[in-house]
Write a structure and sequence with these properties.
CATH architecture of the largest domain in chain A: 3-Layer(aba) Sandwich
Organism (chain B): Marinomonas colpomeniae
Helix content of chain B: over 70%
Distance between the termini of chain A: 51 Å
Protein name (chain A): Urea ABC transporter substrate-binding protein
Structural class of chain B: mainly alpha
Shape of chain A: elongated
Largest sheet of chain A: 9 strands, mixed
Subcellular location (chain B): Cell inner membrane
Pfam family, one (chain A): Peripla_BP_5
Organism (chain A): Marinomonas colpomeniae
Number of helices of chain A: 14
Number of domains of chain B: 1
Radius of gyration of chain A: 23 Å
Strand content of chain B: under 5%
Oligomer: heterodimer
Distance between the termini of chain B: 55 Å
């Protein structure tokens, strides 16, 4: 423990300057830090926090920013529950650098300008040391400029289309290639699939994902895309599309339909007599959360490709599922994004402890060294790549009537590649 | 169309024909309740979709109750849940009229705003009561799957069910409106409120029951749609645009117009969607609709609305 009074401070422009005020602050901190150092063995707030974040000698404040109201509340509920669970567990273990984590929660209300406004509030007014939040790509794009301007740190949990890498964001979900490529390889090999019908909701994530899928099918697998279709968001009528699919007779239906449409899509497939007995279907938009609304009987036998399924059989996951159910009720289900959200606080803890500081720049630098890993992740093992994304495995799950999936395939650890060459 | 036999093409043609009729019945069932309220009372009920969600959640509640307490009853509960959805949505509509709408009859734009507010309140109440996630009622087995008419033709059973239900509800509404003495009073009030009052019709009571009836039918629609679509806090907002499209295109005050409009929109949408992409099909349908409404602002079948 040392208090160096005369360390030159780097200004934001990189010039080395001496600020009389910070000298004064350091002087004031001496008695407190000396007391703490001798009696508790703590590092004083002035040392682990040189940029004015909300860090005291006993507490550090973080933000959680998800939609609790509006359309997206369906999806974002699980994510914020998992983040709270992780933070609770970290606090029970003694916190981070001896400090308990305090949460300030804000509601993004499924509205992108609100997300931006609330993230500004969290960064400027609450001065939080990290934010766990956002779900849709639209909300992430809305808050990204705020995080970059105010130099905040965001842990973003959703699997997404890639093509992004910001200094201020750690992506704990999979980017498109980590989810799509291995699933297609698997279905081409296992089901001898040659022809594919692509269907998704009409917005950026399905369209980018389908673009990558089509390139992979045509250039790598030597297969054929016999149809590509996008339904407007919220559309609930799939009769004509189902007949089109019937006409093209694809080996595999590859689906990325979301929200209320997703429920209608699977209910109407079943009603049209297209079940897993006759048709192979692989989707990238169904997790345990969605199954609640769709109903296991409508999905039975179809496949999802994700990095995590609640039914995964390992000690980490068993402990996680038990703890989640204890905190949020025994009927809770845990989907892919919920698990990815759970990783956020743990990755942050690892980076802060490695940096020995809460300063955003130091935490980011520590994160970029490529040696932050979690051996306790429910999905198994993850490692943070210098490109801010996680190394993870892709898994194919086959849905059962009870709403759980049986993992039928597991890939090797896949390196994240947010800007895949040849796929753009 | 190389590589297809005539049998196959015939089968696809038949199934496509059915999906058009099925879409027609869905649109009509959505729009009937709104047509009654909008047409007969001139109130634009923005919360119509949420009354449908009330029906859907009623079905969900009854399904969980049945599953827990009377599992043997599971194959039949769905019919009761439709009746229950009608009653519950109807009663809520009655209360909404009494508490909110009746104060605003002279201010049509304010009813728009007030019912929109009501829809937000209802959405958030669903979220608080049932959780933000979507739920799925356990449907009886006889409603699931397809009826194999021939080797190649599969007809969705839930589509048949909605079709039959729409038929029954439409006939019921026509009977009430045109054959019962209550319907006579409703029509009289629509045409001339002051005069109807003068001959002893309790117009306030008529308003309240008309509104309740419209909401009740929305409840039936919501219960029926649990078989084809989602049940969640924002389910209602998925339907509201299509519903308004049907009612406005049909001509505000005409039930015949509503039927004709639902039929033409459904056929256009379903045929176009088969040949071009879904988004473009929607764009094209809406474009033609706007064009027709520019020349015929009253809709397909115009008739008198209470001013």
């Amino acid at each position: 423990m040392s208090v160096n009074l005369f360390t030159p401070q780097k200004s934001s422009t990189g010039r080395v300057i001496r600020k009389p005020r910070s000298l004064l602050k350091s002087l004031c901190a001496i008695p407190v830090s000396l007391v703490l150092a001798t009696h508790i063995g703590l590092v004083s707030a002035a040392d682990v926090n040189t940029t004015g974040l909300a860090v005291t000698d006993t507490e550090v404040t973080v933000g959680i920013l998800h939609s609790l109201t509006g359309t997206m509340a369906i999806s974002e509920t699980g994510a914020q529950q998992a983040e709270k669970l992780a933070i609770k567990q970290i606090n029970e273990m003694g916190g981070i650098l001896g400090r308990q984590i305090k949460i300030v929660q804000e509601d993004g209300a499924s509205d992108w300008p609100t997300f931006a406004e609330k993230s500004r509030k969290l960064l400027v007014q609450d001065k939080v040391a990290a934010v766990f939040g956002a779900w849709t790509s639209a909300s992430r794009k809305a808050i990204l400029p705020v995080f970059e301007k105010e130099n905040g740190l965001l842990y973003y949990p959703t699997f997404y289309e890639g093509l992004e890498q910001s200094k201020n964001v750690i992506y704990t979900g999979q980017e498109a290639t980590q989810q799509i490529l291995d699933g297609l390889n698997w279905v081409a090999k296992e089901k001898k699939a040659k022809t594919f019908y692509l269907i998704g909701s009409d917005y950026i994530w399905p369209r980018t994902s389908m673009k990558i899928a089509r390139k992979h099918i045509e250039n790598v697998l030597g297969g054929k895309v016999v149809g590509e279709e996008y339904k407007p968001l919220g559309d609930t009528q799939f009769g004509s599309v189902i007949n089109k699919i019937r006409l093209r007779k694809p080996d595999v239906i590859y689906a990325a339909v979301v929200g209320g449409s997703n429920v209608a899509w699977f209910k109407q497939l079943k009603a049209a007599g297209i079940t897993s007995k006759k048709q192979t279907l692989l989707t990238i938009s169904v997790t345990e959360d969605e199954v609640l609304g769709i109903g296991g009987e409508n999905l039975e036998g179809f496949y999802s490709i994700m990095k995590y399924f609640q039914s995964q059989d390992n000690a980490n996951n068993k402990a996680f599922v038990a703890a989640f159910k204890e905190m949020w009720g025994k009927d809770s289900v845990i989907g892919d994004v919920t698990q990815a959200a759970y990783l956020g606080p743990w990755l942050w803890k690892a980076a802060v402890e490695k940096a020995g500081s809460f300063d955003i720049d130091k935490v980011v630098a520590a994160s970029e060294e490529g040696d932050i890993e979690l051996t306790t992740a429910p999905e198994g093992y993850v490692k943070l790549d210098p490109n801010h994304h996680l190394w993870s495995k892709a898994r194919v799950g086959q849905w059962m009537k009870n709403g759980q999936a049986k993992v039928v395939y597991e890939s090797e650890l896949i390196k994240p590649d947010p800007f895949p060459e040849g796929y753009q | 169309m190389g590589g297809y036999s005539y049998d196959e093409l015939g089968a696809i043609f038949a199934m496509q024909g059915f999906s058009g009729i099925s879409l027609f019945s869905v649109l009509l069932l959505m729009a009937l309740g709104l047509a009654i309220i909008f047409g007969q009372m001139g109130v634009i009920n923005m919360a119509h979709g949420e009354f449908m969600a009330v029906g859907a959640y009623t079905t969900y509640l009854l399904s969980s109750l049945t599953e827990t307490y009377f599992p043997a009853f599971l194959p039949y509960y769905f019919l009761f849940s439709i009746a229950a959805a009608f009653v519950i949505a109807g009663v809520m509509g009655y209360l909404a009229e009494y508490i909110l709408i009746r104060h605003l009859y002279s201010r049509p734009l304010d009813t728009l705003l007030a019912t929109w507010g009501l829809s937000l309140i209802m959405q958030q109440s669903f979220r608080s009561l049932f959780g933000a996630r979507e739920v799925s009622p356990t449907l009886p087995d006889w409603l699931l799957g397809a009826y194999p008419a021939t080797d190649m033709i599969d007809i969705p059973i839930n589509g048949l069910f909605v079709l039959a239900l729409t038929g029954v509800v439409t006939l019921g509404v026509f009977y009430l409106m045109f054959k019962s003495s209550w319907g006579l009073q409703v029509r009289a009030t629509t045409q001339n409120r002051a005069m109807s009052g003068a001959v002893g019709i309790n117009t306030k009571k008529i308003d309240r029951y008309t509104f309740a009836l419209g909401c009740g039918i929305a409840g039936i629609a919501g219960a029926a749609f649990t078989t084809i679509a989602s049940t969640g806090p924002t389910t209602g907002s998925l339907y509201i645009v299509d519903t308004f499209m049907v009612v406005v295109f049909g001509g505000a005050a005409s039930l015949f117009g509503t039927i004709a409009s639902a039929f033409s929109i459904a056929q256009a949408q379903s045929i176009l969607e088969f040949f071009i992409s879904s988004s473009m099909a929607k764009v094209f349908t809406l474009f033609v609709l706007v064009l027709i409404l520019m020349f015929k602002p009253e809709g397909l079948f115009a008739s008198k609305v209470r001013r």
